[in-house]
């Protein structure tokens, strides 16, 4: 998969790659960062709005609680006022007595005058001798059937908050409703304290978000939008995902998204609760972030367009020079070596152009040298052919030598000189093998035939002075080796090791296969080699000086082994003066060559 992608990329034009690289390196990261920052900016704006609306609701709750503490305190004081009990339960005999009693109990009026947090106070009682006025009212049948009235009588003095209509002026108020027990008279009444709606709305008017106070029946009792007073939540035409309890909710009002915070609240430990609702438009919150985002998007888009234009310009500048270089390379490829590329600049393309011109000059020089070399080579070949022709004219035919040796062998055999006949036959066999030697490899068995011929001839020469042993692993006979790498070692042992010993000596050839290696050792018990001479021989073996390639000797064998099997496969010499010499080497059984 990765290889296919690389291949596809390599097939694209350079200009396309530049645009793709720009998209990967600049465009995509900018888009990712832009989307991330946009999302974060919107989230930050929403988070700030949520924190602000939470703080607003807490502030409204605190200030409204301070306002509602006033009617709570008044209700508590009135419920324990003995003068109110006397005025509400006294059986009056005349209208004058009633009016006089009202003038003697001005507390309701005083509370309204002293505390702007309330609008009015009234007490519903069951006393047929009192007259209905703005403060003491008979609980008629209409009132007694009101849910708030029945709820108040059913509770033992607990406070209720309801949004009810005041029959005296026809307006709706958030009212504190409480049952007042007159223990001495064993009667009761229902106290209603109307909260000042203007003061309540004044608290909400200081809030930046739309804020409502709603009773348990979803009646809007206060709002910083006066047109909403008296309506219910259902009249607002909003759809909420879920508004069962306190918390944040996503709502839709007239098809637009809003966020709503609901906070339940029971002021003064009342029987029922009020809800403070704050609503803000999502569009109004994200309006400023959206403006910033649009401005940033315009700036980014302008920068991207400018970057694309610059990349297009630079890509044309770059690809134009590359195309010019490609055309000159095509000219050189077609054989026009006189093409010269002129590209200004010190960048990589300019450097490449200079290297191209240098390469063309080198090719021209090289072709001139090759032509001169070919001319000289042809001249040398003519000279060599002339020399070979002259040598062939005076060369002794090798077949003549083989035939002459065969005639000598037959004469010796006829005259009963079998040993001479055998030696002549072996000599002819050795000469024929040496003449047939080429660069190809031969089997170890063939090499050992040459070694045997040589040892038999030398045995004929030295007689009892020469003894030899061949210890050959049968599995090694078919191993392919370079020709003439063992016989010269045997010859070296015979000539240099035994020739100067009067009593002669022993030459031993050990060949075995061990650990995947062919191990060859040629040893003798001759005169040995002195340390000085051994040092000279080792220096000669490792010398890098040129030598005649046709010289069959230890250095020749040493170099051939290293070139064929590796630098670790050369000859190893061990000798002690007066005790003999051992020459050995190890070569792998692999069929491939080192070089």
Please bin the fraction of helical residues: 40-55%
Kindly report how far apart the N and C termini lie: 38 Å
**Cα-atom Rg, whole angstroms?**
62 Å
Arithmetic mean of pLDDT: 78
Please give the order of strands in the largest beta sheet: 7-6-11-10-9-8
**What's the structural domain tally?**
3
Which residue ranges are poorly predicted, with pLDDT under 50 across at least 5 consecutive positions? Answer: 387-397, 547-552
Total number of helical segments? Answer: 16
Q: Tell me the number of strands.
A: 18
Polypeptide structure, described:
This is Histidine kinase. Pfam families: HAMP (PF00672), HATPase_c (PF02518), His_kinase (PF06580). This protein is α+β, with helices and mostly antiparallel strands. The protein folds into 3 domains: 1-336, no CATH class; 337-393, no CATH class; 466-588, Histidine kinase-like ATPase, C-terminal domain (Heat Shock Protein 90, 2-Layer Sandwich). The chain has 16 helices and 18 strands. It has helices at 2-10, 14-79, 82-89, 95-104, 107-114, 141-144, 147-154, 197-205, 282-333, 348-394, 398-414, 418-436, 444-462, 487-498, 531-542, 554-565, and strands spanning 118-125, 136-138, 160-165, 172-182, 187-195, 210-214, 220-223, 238-240, 247-253, 256-265, 274-281, 442-443, 466-472, 480-481, 505-514, 517-524, 572-576, 580-588. The strands form 4 sheets. It has a 6-stranded antiparallel β-sheet with strand order 7-6-11-10-9-8. Strands 2-1-5-4-3 form a 5-stranded mixed β-sheet. Strand 10 and strand 11 form a beta hairpin. Helix 2 (14-79) runs antiparallel to helix 8 (197-205), helix 2 (14-79) packs antiparallel against helix 9 and helix 13 packs parallel to helix 14. It starts with a helix and ends in a 7-residue tail after the last strand. The model is unreliable at 387-397 and 547-552 (pLDDT under 50).
């Amino acid at each position: 998969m990765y290889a296919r992608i690389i291949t596809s990329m390599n097939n694209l034009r350079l200009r396309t790659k530049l645009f793709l690289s720009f998209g990967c390196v600049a465009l995509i990261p900018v888009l990712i960062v832009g989307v991330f920052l946009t999302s974060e900016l919107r989230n930050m704006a929403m988070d700030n709005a949520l924190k602000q609306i939470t703080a607003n609701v807490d502030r409204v709750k605190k200030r409204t609680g301070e306002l509602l503490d006033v009617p709570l305190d008044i209700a508590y004081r009135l419920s324990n006022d003995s003068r109110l009990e006397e005025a509400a339960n006294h059986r009056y005999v005349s209208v004058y007595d009633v009016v006089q009693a009202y003038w003697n109990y001005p507390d309701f009026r005083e509370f309204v005058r002293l505390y702007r947090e309330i609008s009015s106070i009234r007490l519903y009682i069951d006393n047929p001798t009192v007259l209905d006025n703005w403060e003491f009212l008979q609980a008629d049948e209409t009132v007694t059937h009101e849910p708030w009235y029945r709820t108040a009588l059913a509770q033992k003095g607990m406070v209720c908050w309801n949004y009810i209509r005041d029959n005296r002026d026809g307006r709706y108020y958030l009212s504190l409703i409480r049952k007042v027990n007159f223990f001495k008279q064993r009667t009761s009444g229902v106290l209603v304290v109307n909260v000042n709606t203007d003061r309540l709305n004044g608290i909400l008017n200081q809030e930046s978000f739309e804020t409502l106070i709603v009773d348990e029946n979803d009646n809007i009792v206060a709002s910083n939008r006066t047109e909403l007073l008296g309506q219910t939540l259902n009249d607002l035409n909003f759809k909420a995902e879920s508004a069962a309890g306190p918390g944040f909710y996503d709502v839709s009002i007239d098809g637009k998204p809003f966020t709503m915070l609901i906070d339940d609240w029971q002021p003064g430990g009342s029987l029922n609760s009020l809800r403070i609702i704050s609503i803000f438009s999502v569009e109004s919150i994200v309006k400023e972030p959206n403006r910033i985002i649009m401005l940033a998007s315009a700036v980014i888009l302008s920068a991207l367009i400018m970057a694309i234009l610059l990349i297009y310009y630079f890509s044309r500048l770059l690809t134009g020079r590359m195309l010019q270089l490609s055309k000159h390379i095509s000219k050189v490829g077609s054989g026009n070596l006189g093409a010269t590329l002129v590209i200004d600049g010190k960048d990589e393309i300019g450097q490449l152009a200079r290297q191209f011109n240098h390469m063309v000059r080198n090719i021209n020089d090289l072709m001139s040298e090759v032509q001169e070399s070919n001319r000289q080579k042809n001249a040398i070949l003519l000279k060599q052919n002339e020399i070979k022709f002259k040598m062939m004219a005076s060369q002794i035919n090798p077949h003549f030598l083989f035939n002459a040796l065969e005639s000598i062998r037959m004469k010796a055999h006829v005259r009963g000189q079998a040993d001479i006949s055998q030696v002549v036959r072996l000599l002819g066999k050795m000469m024929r093998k040496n003449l047939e030697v080429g660069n190809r490899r031969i089997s170890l068995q063939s090499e050992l035939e040459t070694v045997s011929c040589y040892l038999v001839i030398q045995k004929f020469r030295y007689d009892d002075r020469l003894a030899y042993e061949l210890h050959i692993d049968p599995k090694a006979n078919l191993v392919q080796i370079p020709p003439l790498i063992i016989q010269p070692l045997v010859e070296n042992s015979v000539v240099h090791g035994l020739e100067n010993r009067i009593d002669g000596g022993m030459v031993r050839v050990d060949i075995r296969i061990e650990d995947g290696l062919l191990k060859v050792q040629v040893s003798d018990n001759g005169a040995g080699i002195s340390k000085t001479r051994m040092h000279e021989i080792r220096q000669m073996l490792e010398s890098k000086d040129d030598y005649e390639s046709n010289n069959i000797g230890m250095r020749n064998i040493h170099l051939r082994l290293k070139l064929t099997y590796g630098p670790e496969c050369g000859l190893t010499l061990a000798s002690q003066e007066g005790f003999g010499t051992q020459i050995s080497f190890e070569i792998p059984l692999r069929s491939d060559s080192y070089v």
